[in-house]
Write a structure and sequence with these properties.
Number of strands: 5
Largest sheet: 5 strands, parallel
Oligomer: single chain
Strand order of the largest sheet: 1-5-4-2-3
Number of helices: 15
Structural class: alpha/beta
Helix content: 55-70%
Order of helices and strands: HHHHHHHHHEHEHHHEHEHE
Distance between the termini: 59 Å
Radius of gyration: 28 Å
Length: 375
């Protein structure tokens, strides 16, 4: 005989999902009393119909949004009439339920508190749904563990991202845009993205823009890595037109981090890496290397030199770096060293195409320019 799931285990189905019926009634009651203020407040806090756990409350809020979007007044009479016209008045609990919402909420002064409580409970239910789906995927065993992990992290990242988005007034939007315009006018460079520190590249591209995937392609030993590392160094050190230091993530799938650091040291010290490898270092060169090391130690650069990385694992690591360090540029060296096991059976060409698509999706998800090297 199967052992029942212990209390608190994921397998339990006898628990009611997190919700607050009182808070939901408080939000709807406040809307029926003071729709002009409370509806906009609820929309700004990302309250949607599915934010309400009670089905009748979802119907009522859907009706409120419908009236609000059409520019019609929202109150006890108009909501009741709309529900009656659409044949959903009984599903919404009847006119008595609407009257009860107003009676139970004599003032809309606490609407903000009710809205936040409803939002919090909805977030908890979304997290539970995500976890349940992950658990079911694990038991089914149809997908690779890395893919399930990436999907779960993506879902949680979306939940977190949703909570940070909020509507702003037109005046605020204009003000924020003018801040960017002033930056462009002050540096007179016309840059609208992340500057690379190379004048010609910045002039051609206007900087590396968020959500873009930029590919540096060339034959082997043509200097792709050197160029990418120089860009990463300049972005991180602030050796750019706007003099702003930005965190950079580097995924080096072929070259170990020690070799990358050595390249950056030599580049910043203005000496040939061949001289360093051969031991031909004068006293002046040594002093330049020490100064270069002191400068680079302050650079917000994060290097991951894991070989044979799966693209889903790379996305997961980039996601964590973005959340923890607010990465502003991602460099990947190089495309053909990445793997996508789920597409491997379809041939290397299709696997590479799938990897490219995944990296582009990552750039859009994190809103960070992604610089990819390719042979």
């Amino acid at each position: 005989m199967a052992t029942p799931a212990p209390p608190g285990s994921p397998g339990r189905t006898d628990r009611v999902p997190p919700h607050s019926e009182e808070a939901e009634r408080g939000v709807l009651g406040s809307i029926l009393i003071d729709a002009g203020r409370v509806v906009d407040l609820a929309i700004e806090r990302q309250i949607r119909a599915e934010s309400f756990y009670v089905p009748a409350h979802r119907l009522i809020f859907e009706t409120v949004l419908d009236l609000h979007e059409k520019g019609r007044p929202v109150d006890l009479l108009t909501v009741g009439e709309r529900l009656r016209d659409t044949g959903r008045i009984e599903a919404a609990g009847g006119i008595g339920n609407l009257e009860g919402l107003v009676d139970s909420c004599p003032t809309s002064a606490h609407a903000e508190y009710y809205i936040d409580l409803v939002r919090q409970k909805h977030i908890l239910r979304r997290i539970i749904d995500s976890s349940r789906e992950a658990i079911e995927s694990c038991y089914r065993g149809e997908d690779a563990a890395d893919l399930i992990l990436d999907r779960s992290e993506q879902y949680l990242f979306d939940i977190s991202h949703d909570q940070r988005r909020s509507a702003v007034s037109w005046a605020e939007a204009v003000k924020e845009t003018m801040v960017e315009v002033e930056k462009i006018c002050q540096n007179r460079s016309g840059l609208t993205g992340v500057p690379t520190g190379f004048t010609d590249i910045d002039r051609w591209t206007s900087g590396l823009h968020p959500s873009d995937m930029i590919i540096i392609a060339a034959r082997p030993s043509m200097g792709k890595t050197s160029l990418a590392m120089n860009i990463a160094e300049k972005v991180a050190m602030g050796d750019t037109a706007d003099k702003i230091s930005r965190p950079v993530a580097i995924f080096s799938l072929e070259m170990p981090r020690e070799a990358l650091v050595k390249r950056m040291l030599c580049s910043r010290a203005g000496m040939s890496s061949h001289k360093l490898s051969g031991g031909y270092v004068s006293q002046d060169m040594h002093g330049s290397l020490v100064q270069a090391a002191a400068d680079l130690q302050r650079a917000p650069i994060f290097v991951d030199d894991s070989a044979g990385l799966e693209v889903v694992e790379l996305r997961a690591r980039a996601r964590r770096l973005k959340k923890k360090h607010d990465i502003q540029l991602i460099v990947i060296d190089y495309l053909q060293m990445l793997n996508f096991t789920q597409k491997a059976d379809e041939g290397r060409q299709r696997e590479t195409a799938a990897i490219s698509g995944s990296l582009k999706a990552m750039a859009k998800e994190l809103r960070v320019p992604v610089l990819v090297l390719s042979q």
